[in-house]
Amino acid sequence: MTVQQLKYIETTPVLETERLILRPITPQDADAAFVWLSDERVNRFMPYDLYTNTDEVLHWINVILPDDNNFHWGFVLKENDLLIGSGSIGPDAKTIGAWGFGYNIRFDCWNKGYTTEATKRMIRFAFEEHGVRDFVSNHAVDNPASGRVMEKCGLVFDGFSEYKTFDGKQTFQSKTYKMHIEQENGFAVTRRLFSIRPSPST
Predict the structure, then answer these.
(1) CATH architecture classification, 3-191
(2) What is the pLDDT of residue 66?
């Protein structure tokens, strides 16, 4: 294991939810991660190319950088220690002061609430440990299930946008969701961060 990998593991806290452990991803996870990284159904709206072998997965794992403000976890089921997906959260490149997040989960674990459960924990970590109040994320228009995850986490629709695959060959029309959290009387209170903008077609 490289010095970079060791630092990533040391600086990424282990988090817990009712059914999941969120922990650093290691090279030993390559086979488990390949299950979703090589699945066309999971990859359909992702910006990365479909993975074709575990060597490509190992390369991805090996380049996860340790960073004080960007965090990347694997999602592990408590009941059987199975790695079922991954997610990350950190400063958003387009929205000053806000943190963005993303997630990915194997197909046979869809529609069971795992993604929402893990995402809520990532948001809570950013809010409680790093004082983050503003959050933003987006999903492909043709992938409404991802939007439902964002809504369940407290985000609201803010407008339309687009994103490209890493190789620039494909562009997805997308929806952007945002949220602002305030602390009031010891409780976290979710408020709308931006006003909702109309569709370009209206």
Answers:
(1) 3-Layer(aba) Sandwich (3.40)
(2) 76
